[in-house]
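Risk register update: the risk of archive-format incompatibility is retired. Evidence:
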Amino acid sequence: FFQAEDGIRDYKVTGVQTCALPIFSRDGETWSPRLDRPTPTPVLTRRRMAQALTFMQQSLDKPVRISQIAKSTDLSPAHFRRLFHQNTGCSPGQYIRQLRINLARKLLCDTQLSVKQIATRVGFDDPYHFSRAFRQVDGKSPTAFREAVLRESMP
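Archived output:
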């Protein structure tokens, strides 16, 4: 864009003038009517955060998309992702993975379900992918975790 001498900003696209926005003067300051009013910024309120967390907790047993969680909070996926990260310090995907691994730990400790069954219950279609994700978070495989817990519980 360029500023004309008459105070009009001209925006050009491939040499064709598309629109002109007047620049107004108020007490010697230059401002634009579009820039003078702040645009409302979506906020991840406690209610929206609670809705997102509830949705995540209820969806641990199946694949879930960020767009589905964002829809439950009435935010766009991009805004939800950004605001969630600002409020929690991690992405929604990382948070869901941590919830799933926490549930898997509980199931490994409290049940005799196989690793494959636990993987399915915590939303992983592939037991190998589950084991890899578990190892990334916990530092050991699900089987090694279960064996360590069993060893610690024995006198």
